[in-house]
């Protein structure tokens, strides 16, 4: 079995940064990941808040990650981890393809996956009009009408990117306010082919071979009724029931946030209610000594590329200190 000082799971901003810093400490390293770049590779608009670049696209930043990985002789293995377990003093990494690797220390930097909305038609039409990546699939919908589910920054940025291709975009937001930054709200407001629909509870996606429509409930009456009942109990329930409305669309882009990719490491870490990994803020170490976490898979409040990169660097330096102590302890007992 191949054994390394450090195995890093994930090759997004956190994983690549961890790899670069660990390589400078002359550690033997293996990075295991489904892809390189993570969510950065799917970024629909230019990144304008990353130090060193006034503006850079997600794919261009990923190209730099690949170049830096090569320059630092990082070994990157394409694969998915099924489980991590302790094996004596080391960690044993089980891949879904049956292969196993061993390491003194592990950094989990798996980020997060697109959250599904779980409505009828979503799974049925996945890849047939339902998408979770506007950058990947946007050009396919040239001159068509699409819906974007989600009124946060992801939804608004997705709509801005799609506006270059599609004829009309509907942004559907469940609440009566959107969560996107003011800058994104102002940009979206300047586009004639983008319409924001609030109080829209998405009900189902329909079609035959491909998506043909999306239906939502107008829940503005529910909000009005709740507000009225707070002042006058007799008015409760007098407002009309939620009304269903259908939009004829050929595409649906789901942009309602992300779910941490942490299921494979449940037994060795503490997870919060959102399935994010809890860690020591000083070292990024989890409850299991030698197991560290970096990036969007952990409890960090702000999910930003620059912060994931910083955590990657910090976790690598903490892992180096742990490995150094472990090697000293093991050599002492030999």
Automatic annotation (TrEMBL):
Keyword Ligase attached: no
Any Pfam family hit: Pyr_redox_2
A single GO molecular function term of this UniProt record: oxidoreductase activity, acting on a sulfur group of donors, NAD(P) as acceptor
InterPro entries, A to Z: FAD/NAD-bd_sf, FAD/NAD-binding_dom, Ferredoxin-NADP_redctase_2, Pyr_nucl-diS_OxRdtase_2_AS
Domain of life: Bacteria
Occurrences of domain FAD/NAD(P)-binding (ranges): 4-312
Keywords: Disulfide bond, FAD, Flavoprotein, Oxidoreductase, Redox-active center
Name of this chain's protein: FAD/NAD(P)-binding domain-containing protein
Origin species: Candidatus Staskawiczbacteria bacterium RIFCSPHIGHO2_01_FULL_34_27
